[in-house]
Structures are given as C-alpha cells and as structure tokens.
Structure prediction request, 432 residues.
Amino acid sequence: MRRALAGIALAVTSMVALSFLIPLALLVREQARDRVTTAAEQRASALSPVLALTTRTADVQQAVAEIDYHDQLAVRLPGGGFVGSPHAPRHALDRAVRKRETLTLDTAEGWVYLQPVVLPEERVAVVEAFVPAGELTRGVWASWGVMSLLAVGLVGGSVIVADRLGARVVRSSQSLKRASLALGSGDLEVRVEPDGPPELQDAGAAFNTMADRVVELLAIEREMVADLSHRLRTPLTALYLEADLMGASPGARRITTAVSQLEAELDSIITTARTPLAAGPPSGQISARPCETAEVVAMRLDFWSVLAAQQNRPCERSLTPRPTPVRFPEDDLAAVVDALIGNVFRHTPQGTAFAVRVELDDRCVLLTVDDAGPGVADPEAALTRGVSVGGAGGTGLGLDIVARAARAADGELEISRSPMGGARVRVSFALA
Prediction:
C-alpha cells in the first residue's frame, strides 16, 4: 500500500508538472526570441530617419556604427552598394526592394529582419537587422534547467509526503493485521491502539470491541460446559449406590469401573472448560508425548469385549506387533477408539460382528473398524457435525470428533463399504 500511494503521487504530480512545464518552457523560448527580435527591429527603425536625410556612404556608416555595437546592422543603398556585412540572401533583398515590404526570415546563421526605406525619386534602401542563432536562445536552457529542477523538487516532495502519509496508514493497518492474527491464534489478551486515519481508528476500536465480546462469550460458554458436566455427578452417585447394593459381583465391579472412568472424564471436561484458552496449544496443533496406538486400541478392546460377549457380537482384532507411535494424547486416542466402536454398538443390531485392525502403511498408522451391519448410506453427510450415521439415536458428534483428531495428527478419515458387508471406517495418523 505504501508503495502504491507513492506511485500514485508520483504519477499525478508528474502529470501536473508536465502540463505546466511544457507550455511554460515554450513561452520562455518565445519570449527570449521576441526580446532580441524586437530589439533588432528597433535598431533597424532607428536608421530610417538617417536614410531619409542622406544616403552618403560615410554618413550611413557613421550612423550604423553609433547604433550597432555588435556588427548586426547592414544597409543596402539605393545604388546597390552595402554598408556593413549583409546576411540576407540576394533574392530576399531584391524582393524587399521590388515589393517594398518588410520581411523576416530564418537562415542557417540566425534571424534576419529586412525593412525597406522609400526615398525620394522612387529610390529604395533596405535596412537589415541580423540576430545570430545563439542570441535567439540565450538564457532559454538555463530557464528550462531551473524549471526542471523545480518540477523535480515538487514531484519528489509530493512523493515524500505521500510516502509519510502511506507509512502512517500502513503502520496502522499492519498493527491491526498482527492483532487479528494473534487473536486467531488464541491470544485473547491482544488489543490494538487505534491510530492512523479516522477509518482505521474506527476499525481498531471495532476490533477491540469484538475481542472483548469474544472473551466474554467464550467465558460464558466454558462455564456452561463446566456446569452441565457437573450436573452428571448426581446420576453417577446413584450408579455408585446401585453398584454397592449389588455386592461384590462381577457385574457390580464392571459398573463401578465404568462409572469411575466416566467420572474421570467429567473431571477432565470440567478442568479443560475452566482452563484459559491461551494456556493450551493453538487449534490444530498437538503437543503431547508419543503413545502406542496398538496398546491403546488393545486396552479399549478389552473394555468393549465384555459388552460384545453379552450381546453375542463376534469381535476380531488384528494389531501389528511393530511400533506404532503417534504424537497424540493417549486419552484423546482412547476417545477416538471408543467413538468408532461405540458407533458399531449403537447403530447395528445385537449379534452383529465387527473387526478392529491396526497396521502400518508407509509413514502412518491405520486404524480400521469394520462391521457387518447395514453400513453408511451417505458417508459425506455422516462426516457433518450433528448428523448421526444411523439417522437417529446419536448426537452426530462421534465421527466429527474422529475426523478432527485425524486432521490434528496429520491424517484423515475415510468411510467406505466393509468386506463384512457393513461400514468400514479407516483413520490414519502420522507416525511420530
């Protein structure tokens, strides 16, 4: 922007300067020419009274010597003789004598003025005033140089002023840009000092108002999440009491373990909701120690296998023995596995088989969940947040959570038809 403003100022002032400079330069040249030619005409006219009185060569020579200091006057006497050195061509002199008209003409040596003087007895003398070519342009080049310097100074000054004004505008806009990028990166404390033109000052004030509103809305939203999560503690307490009433049975132990895990998840949600946003990593970046994908998947399969046995669901697992480290939090990876397997239990009938595989492919880890259910009719719609893969009975958040986790780990999510006849959901994670 700064360069553009300077360029506009340069173009505009240059056009204005040229529009005045060119006519003024021509006028200066014409005035210089008129000055010397008028003086020459006056000198020639001063000889007319002398010729009217006498045409003797000696008298005319004396008059010419008194009027002309630069040997620029000459007289053609009626008899054809000359006083001084003529510069006009012969045909021009003959024409002035014959037609008795005043002539001006340009020659290779300069400018010539011929003034006929009619004498008694139809005699005609011609006074010639000569101006050398150098005299016609004396002082013109110096005047043009001064005008050019003035024009360059004016153009340069306007460019400097425009650059200073542009620097102020650019400085204000860059400050607003840096603040916008910082706010987008999670720095909720960033504000700008309104500066520059009134429009940019208004934009800076609007940015500060927007940032304050964003902080306020985020605080309200995070407190709401924490409050809603805390409300779940009441039913969890009831489940604990029910497990105690069941005694030391295996079912009671399973319920107690599941409730403990759910309570730990709620604690994590509340803590995360009340953690300032700027304290965490920027969105889309993962800063965690590597975890083993196969180990996390095996651990979650052990949990889900109990429910699979109760529902008569055949479960196949194929976990590669090779290291599968991914730079992803272990809890988040477990949530991804639970979301994929939970969809199988939620959207397929009891007794439907499913399979889970972990394998390596080039530089990524592939987590694949196949099932023998009805499949996913519209994979693209299933990836839309809030749209349930089964059309009902779900929040539509599971696959969206998985997709965002895959993107955060430089991977992707793919939904297709499983060899078992149902849906295949494959998630890739970049190797750590």
Summary: The longest strand covers residues 110-119.
